[in-house]
Amino acid sequence: MATIIAPHQFSPVEDAEALRKACQGWGTNEKSIITILGHRNATQRKQIREAYEQLYQEDLVKRLESELSGDFERAVYRWILDPMDRDAVLANVAIRKGSLDYRVIIEIACIQCPEELLGVKRAYINRYKRSLEEDIAAHTTGDLRKLLVALVSPYRYHGDEINARLAKSEADILRDAIKDKALNHDEVIRILTTRSKAQLIATFNRYKDDSGTSITKAVLGDRADEVSVALHTAIRCINDPIKYYEKVLRNAINRIGTDEDALSRVIVTRAERDLRQIKELYYKRNSVKLEHAVAKDTSGDYKAFLLTLLGD
Amino acid sequence: MATIIAPHQFSPVEDAEALRKACQGWGTNEKSIITILGHRNATQRKQIREAYEQLYQEDLVKRLESELSGDFERAVYRWILDPMDRDAVLANVAIRKGSLDYRVIIEIACIQCPEELLGVKRAYINRYKRSLEEDIAAHTTGDLRKLLVALVSPYRYHGDEINARLAKSEADILRDAIKDKALNHDEVIRILTTRSKAQLIATFNRYKDDSGTSITKAVLGDRADEVSVALHTAIRCINDPIKYYEKVLRNAINRIGTDEDALSRVIVTRAERDLRQIKELYYKRNSVKLEHAVAKDTSGDYKAFLLTLLGD
């Protein structure tokens, strides 16, 4: 469930006018921008962008980029984009970083449903005139490349039907590979990248029943190489996105010097989806409300914006 | 350009009634079935199927399957399906064969545009409740699996923009791999499966300019292993589908005992697309009209149906 609170009735033209006003004159009225955009869902934001463009022959996204700055600007920029376009941007930023932040790629590949992933790939091509697959391939090497390209590529089955016999046999394959420390094995990659989410969860459950350990624990073991960590992330994203995101937030907040990139990413991308469940789990795990933790670690307009998206 | 001749005006209900009549009583009126279905395009055939279902609460495809037999039945069955659904069926038949007929998979992956390939993958999931990717992976092993899964998976960029510097550097990578007889190399697979068609054609042209041999010739050399042959097929499908299909037809007709599967596949899948160009090239290469060659090698209703699709 979503956390943002959007009105049923609203006027894209009035919002566009108010945003224009907030951007004009001496200084920007950040508060007004937060109040408006922080309370509009994806469809409404799109209508506002269109109304703004029509009224002022100007791109609202570009205008806001030039008016705002820092973490606040980045968060607003990501928020105002269409969700699939936003994921395309997040993926591109992750790819262009010196050392690729593959968590972002894995989240898109393993948490989004096949049609959403496809939408992100279309948006990526539209923006960059290259495919997501080829850009990932061009910026990675070796086993990590094999895994990441294979994760974003297929169009998986998205239904509920599972094959219990297959879950058993593929749990065995995974267990053997983990035992032999052969996580880069083609079979492991094939299973994790082509099977449906429902089938994989059945396989992971079977793994746990048969061996007494969860596959997430087993995969990582005492390994910390890139491929093991990436596989671990992929399995967690497939298995339980809520739990995964709670941990990302916890790490982003608890480390010395907040990880604003991760904080913004989770809040912005999940605010209209499952951020409420993530908040509940956060509270259960940390005995602190996520809003309070975020408020403590951030400041100014950035803080106000995140708290608005958190439904505070 | 298409070869089939379809009327601008037609009545789905009248066609459905005529087909019903052709299927009733003693013996089937194959001639009537050919006259109707052989002169209707994909949209019209769909409307006929829907009208038939409404009129008689019966699936026309199933009815025809039970009335017809042999090569004729198979060709009509493939023809009457929606093109993407038909490709899904062709892929599934190819996968389930004792030894997988990977030509079919490569044609779908390398000749169809990204949106069409995606449509086939959706149709496949719809029919079989599994993804095309996982079925190919489950029925192949080793390097061939790596190549085929990687060919059908990505959503490639489909625009015209190319990067000449990249074409040069990737032509070099391909040349080194061919020289080292390392066609199973991850780099070769990455290039062929993630780059856009336009980019790959630029790379192949660059290859020829730099080394004086076409990459199709170089890839095969004196090799006849599965992976080399599959790569050779993929490159030919990307490079020049018309030339590729002409050769498939030539081989299907010239071998001892016609290859009806290949013959039907090319004629049925291309009749509404580029069969006219394929016919022209066939005539140029063989000094025999394709219609005459097909007429000589086939008989009965099957022959009459193929000739109708060929626009004879």
Automatic annotation (TrEMBL), chains A, B:
Q: Which positions in this protein are listed as binding Ca(2+) 1? A: 25, 27, 67
Protein origin, superkingdom: Eukaryota
GO-annotated molecular function: calcium ion binding; calcium-dependent phospholipid binding; phosphatidylserine binding
InterPro entries from the entry? Annexin, Annexin_repeat, Annexin_repeat_CS, Annexin_sf, AnnexinD_plant
Q: Which residues cross the membrane?
A: none
For the ligand (Ca(2+) 2), the binding residues are: 253, 255, 257, 297
Where do the annotations place Ca(2+) 3 binding?
A: 295, 298
* GO BP annotations, alphabetical order: response to cold; response to heat; response to salt stress; response to water deprivation
Q: Which SUPFAM superfamilies match?
A: Annexin (SSF47874)
Q: What are its GO cellular component terms?
A: cytoplasm; plasma membrane
Record keywords: Annexin, Calcium, Calcium/phospholipid-binding, Metal-binding, Repeat
Q: Does the keyword Calcium apply?
A: yes
Give the domain section of the comments: A pair of annexin repeats may form one binding site for calcium and phospholipid.
Q: Which family does it belong to?
A: Belongs to the annexin family.
Would you tell me the protein name for this molecule?
Annexin
Recorded source organism is Paeonia suffruticosa (Tree peony)
Q: Which gene encodes it?
A: ANN1
